[in-house]
Specification:
With 320 residues, the chain is mostly helical. The chain has helices at residues 9-18, 36-55, 64-84, 89-112, 123-136, 152-157, 162-174, 230-243, 250-263, 274-290, 295-305, 311-318, and strands at residues 193-194, 198-203, 210-218, 222-228, 245-246.
Length: 320
């Protein structure tokens, strides 16, 4: 059967991307797009690049030389624009991620159909633009503006109740949800943090530093490892040894946080305890990047530690 290739560049984008759409498959061993959120972002950026190629008179995504040449020009234009308009490194790296995924999709298409065409080789180019973005662009174009607290350390230090203070420390340092620290919002749900969640001391997968490891059951019953300071881990060990478990009423816990948020001038409707999780995600993402993680890798690691498991969900935490 003869191979049928769409004539429109935009239709070609759809043809190649459909081949790597893997929403119901695991990430292991697959370079496909696994979440609908990522799919929307990557597809949007791929079509923007296709329009750029169209405006330059190109006709096919299977022309490796044309795609490579246009991608280099397109990324140069993007980087220059982002640098002059004070856009963030995150924004540029999202474009790089999307075009990398499109390049992978093009190669998969060529191999799947047994086409006698040169595969696209853009990885070296992408890495060069990653490096340039780290030099020319700020980590973030603005201070994160969502639910994160401006000074989470001061907030936590101002909490007088030792139970609430420990719970807040765990959320801020390890990215746990309120239910993970024993304060589920559903009153019918009991989810205390017990000695079973103490996994000892080990290495932080990002920094390599020695940390305490806490396993918490959150969001759909999934167990997630969280990494906290040795000091907080020791406090948690002592607390559980004395009280057998860490647990509190959600309403009382949030009221305590809101009270000190007002005292410290950090109160905003909707922040509550979840604001500390936003603080964690934003700081963890930047920590990953500072230790050599790409934008995609940093989002993925932060996603795992916030019990989201999808990178796109984490953008709501790490974007202003």
């Amino acid at each position: 059967m003869a191979h049928r290739w769409p004539r429109s560049l935009h239709s070609q984008v759809e043809a190649v991307l459909q081949g790597i759409r893997s929403f119901r498959q695991t990430k292991t061993g697959s370079g496909g797009i696994h979440s609908f959120g990522s799919w929307k972002v990557y597809r949007f950026e791929a079509h923007k690049f296709a329009q750029y190629m169209h405006d330059r008179g190109r006709e096919s995504l299977l022309d490796s030389n044309a795609v490579t040449e246009d991608m280099a020009a397109y990324l140069t234009q993007k980087l220059d624009y982002y640098a002059t308009s004070n856009r963030s490194r995150q924004t540029m790296e999202t474009v790089l991620s999307a075009l990398g995924k499109m390049g992978y999709a093009i190669n998969c298409y060529i191999e799947r159909h047994g086409l006698q065409m040169a595969l696209l080789d853009i990885e070296k180019m992408r890495l060069e633009f990653y490096q340039q973005s780290r030099i020319k662009l700020p980590r973030s174009s603005k201070v994160f503006g969502n639910r994160a607290y401006p000074d989470p350390v001061r907030l936590i230090e101002s909490i007088a109740n030792p139970t609430f203070q420990l719970q807040a420390s765990l959320q801020y340092e390890g990215g746990l949800r309120a239910e993970g620290v024993g304060a589920p919002s559903n009153r019918r749900l009991k989810n205390p943090l017990t000695a079973k969640g103490l996994r000892g001391r080990g290495k932080d997968p990002v920094t390599g530093n020695l940390v305490g490891i806490v396993a918490a059951t959150e969001k759909g019953g999934k167990e997630t490892d969280h990494y906290i300071s040795l000091e907080t881990y020791s406090r948690l060990e002592k607390y559980i040894l004395s009280h057998h478990q860490l647990e509190s009423e959600y309403g009382d816990y949030v009221d305590a946080i809101n009270q000190v948020a007002r005292i410290t001038g950090q109160y905003a409707r909707g922040r509550g305890s979840h604001g500390l999780k936003h603080n964690f995600a934003q700081e963890r993402y930047l920590e990953c990047v500072s230790h050599g993680f790409s934008h995609e890798q940093a989002l993925q690691q932060t996603s795992l530690e916030t019990s989201h498991f999808r990178m796109r969900e984490t953008l709501t935490y790490t974007s202003g």
